[in-house]
């Protein structure tokens, strides 16, 4: 697998980056610092993860030059009406002047109250138009914009009006949630797919899956390496394994080449063991075009 994938902006996005969904303040600073000191070049966070300040602290503590890091964060659902303020807030918390990639976290504007509810007064397509304007007006602050959790149906609605094609669509991707239709569509449109939860998130049954463990034994690697490599082997895909554990942060960066046969075997796991680790827990927005995302 190559070490980076080219975005439609011309920039290179590292194939493997550190995920920080569920990485809590107190642990994430160290994880980010450790990853950067040990060769990771890409860090992914989101305003919704409530750890941007600590991710920024980890970047600063690493001493690694900002220019050599690919940094991604995401616009939170309740901030869709005021993206500029949200962007400024993320930049400030992360302690940086610019983002390599800024994503619309979900095509689902929400209210700011508790619990957040679907905000039917706002159209996420208008949010994208604002993100496009910010991208064009502030090339010093935004190197690329994209989306996250977009199904084919939502991507089609976006592309019908977009003047900037999203550089990336970040989605849940692992053998039990292969989303091959989304990967195929994005590849056709020149949109890089970033895989989150490549292991299947916390307590994933995939780590003990017999197909996964059989292939791991053959190459003398951990099951996690097989799952991360499955994504990294795809030409148009980057991958974000999450860990706050030093030994895993190190080992997760090891990519192996899988055979066509092994890839097919892994991709078939979903037929008998389908699950989604992340689905919106809010009500009011329906399935967002994902049949099993209620
Ligand atoms: P931890 O962060 O405590 O190390 P995903 O990337 O699919 O979201 O999975 C993240 C989950 O998998 C976390 O619970 C993380 O635990 C765990 N994890 C990360 N790397 C490995 C690994 N190499 N082997 C087993 N579990 C791992």
From TrEMBL:
Domain NADP-dependent oxidoreductase: start-end pairs: 16-270
UniProt-recorded Gene Ontology molecular function terms: oxidoreductase activity, acting on the CH-OH group of donors, NAD or NADP as acceptor
Residues that bind substrate: 105
InterPro entries cross-referenced by the UniProt entry: AKR, NAD(P)_OxRdtase_dom_sf, NADP_OxRdtase_dom
Signal peptide segment: none
Positions of the catalytic residues: 49 (proton donor)
Keywords: NADP, Oxidoreductase
UniProt xrefs under Pfam families: Aldo_ket_red
Superkingdom as given in the UniProt entry: Eukaryota
Coiled-coil blocks: none
Site (Lowers pKa of active site Tyr) residue list: 74
Similarity comment: Belongs to the aldo/keto reductase family.
Name of this protein: Aldo keto reductase
């Amino acid at each position: 697998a190559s070490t980076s994938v080219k975005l439609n902006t011309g920039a290179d996005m590292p194939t493997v980056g550190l995920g920080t969904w569920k990485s809590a303040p107190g642990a994430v600073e160290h994880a980010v610092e450790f990853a950067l000191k040990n060769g990771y070049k890409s860090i992914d966070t989101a305003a919704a993860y409530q750890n941007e300040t600590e991710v920024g602290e980890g970047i600063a503590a690493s001493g690694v030059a900002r220019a050599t890091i690919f940094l991604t964060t995401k616009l939170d659902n309740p901030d869709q009406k005021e993206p500029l303020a949200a962007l400024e807030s993320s930049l400030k918390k992360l302690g940086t002047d610019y983002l390599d990639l800024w994503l619309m976290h979900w095509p689902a504007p929400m209210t700011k109250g508790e619990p957040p509810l679907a905000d039917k007064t706002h159209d996420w397509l208008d949010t994208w138009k604002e993100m496009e304007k910010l991208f064009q007006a502030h090339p010093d602050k935004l190197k690329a914009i994209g989306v996250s959790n977009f199904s084919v149906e939502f991507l089609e609605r976006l592309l019908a009006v977009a003047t900037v094609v999203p550089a990336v669509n970040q989605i849940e991707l692992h053998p039990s949630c292969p989303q091959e239709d989304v990967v195929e569509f994005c590849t056709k449109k020149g949109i890089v797919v970033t895989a989150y939860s490549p292991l299947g998130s916390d307590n994933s049954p995939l780590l003990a899956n017999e197909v996964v463990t059989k292939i791991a034994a053959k190459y003398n690697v951990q099951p996690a390496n097989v799952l991360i490599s499955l994504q990294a082997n795809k030409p148009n895909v980057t991958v974000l394994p999450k860990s706050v554990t030093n030994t895993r942060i190190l080992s997760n960066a090891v990519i192996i080449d899988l055979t066509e046969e092994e890839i097919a075997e892994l991709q078939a796991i979903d037929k008998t063991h389908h699950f989604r680790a992340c689905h919106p827990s809010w009500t009011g927005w329906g399935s967002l075009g994902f049949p099993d995302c209620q």
